[in-house]
Amino acid sequence: MTHGGGSCGGGYSGGGGGFYGGGYWGANSSRRRKNDEDCEKCCSCIFILLGSLLCLTKLTRKQRIAVFWVQIIIITVVTSTVLYSKYNATKKVNVAPTDMRALTKDTTTLLGDGMTLKSHSNFNAYLFKKVPRVVSNATALPYTYDTTLSLQPDRYEYYGYYLLPGSTIEQRACTYFTNSIVTMFVIRGRSNLDKWIKSKNKNDCGNCYIYSHVFETSYGRCSWDEQFNTYTLLVEEADDYYFLFANLYLFDSNFIHAHFRLNRTIYDVTEGLLRSSCNHVTHCHYPLEINSAEVVVIEAPAFYSHDDDMDVTNNARSWLYVVFFLVIPLVLGVSVSSLLFFFCKDPNKPERSTNPQTHRRQGTPGRPTRVTGGAANVAVIQVSDRTPLAPNLPPAYDCIPEIPPVSKEAGMPPTYEQAVQGGLDNVAAYQ
Prior knowledge:
Elements: E1 2-7, E2 10-12, H1 23-53, H2 61-88, E3 91-95, E4 100-102, E5 112-128, E6 134-136, E7 143-151, E8 155-163, E9 168-175, E10 182-188, H3 190-198, E11 211-214, E12 229-234, E13 239-247, E14 254-263, E15 265-267, E16 273-287, E17 295-299, E18 308-316, H4 318-343, E19 370-373, E20 376-379, H5 416-430
Helix pairs in contact: 2-4
Region (Disordered): 350-372
Domain E3 ubiquitin-protein ligase APD1-4 N-terminal: 122-193
InterPro entries: APD1-4_M, APD1-4_N
């Protein structure tokens, strides 16, 4: 049995936080738009990463390979963390007296090589080839529970039971006073319970409950059977079923007396049983075959004095994590990196001029280039945009010719006036 409660502003023991006020429903549309924008941004990032990988962006080969390895590392870490948290992390399962349930939620025999169970109270555990069939429990005595609770204004309390198909639960309840309005809701599943807690209108939460009843006026503190409201639930599917009492009045409290009577069905422990070595223990471990339909069933004896939380761990299959999240990413990374290196090209760089008569040395502006031709070097006079018509500008030193070196074959060099007047032809004549 699970017990909890709360109010509009908070809860306890899993009761949740009530509803969050008028902004809860109004925020759905803006939250939906935000999710669409986040999805578009995520898709854009994916296309950019794929483009950088498929040579669609201007990156060098080294940069492209580095981006690919970053992608591999992020995908591997995120995927392994999510899978481990979902299937292999330790979870708590609430167990009540006479409970019997198959541990099939968020468990897998592919990623888990065994099931470990720990509890502060004794329990029984069985290992089956597959989920066993459900049979009636005609020999067991019905489980009963009586309680009296005081509901303050604008508060609720609930009692939950895990029931197998074919089980029945009879609930009888009565209220002491008439100044407040007490409503009982029967809810199936934890998700529907959370939906009721978060809803603004408790009587209209989108079919989150399967039955509701408003208690009538009672006198004599529920002394007669006629004063009790009786409701019987026949379970069709295995799930958690909650009986919730809500005092929707804002001023007066109320007392409620409730009686629960359970007739449970159980799993057949004689068909398909592999192991049953865990009887009246507080710690148990069962190995699981890889990718099989094996399932562990736990049972809380009827002499359980109270509810207890059991730690359930689906032990990780270590070698499979190593193969899928270390070996395969390494092989894939090395293979794709090789393809990127040999088939992708680096971006083209701007080419420099190779003409010796127009190429100027970088870092020495204004200095002419010397050209080697024949036996002597000839100076190249570069044209400047500066003329005598602009006397205030500094002189253009690139207009001054470079005097060729003196050689024995050339004879005496020309005078300065002859070199300037004749230009290159005069210089060539003396060579």
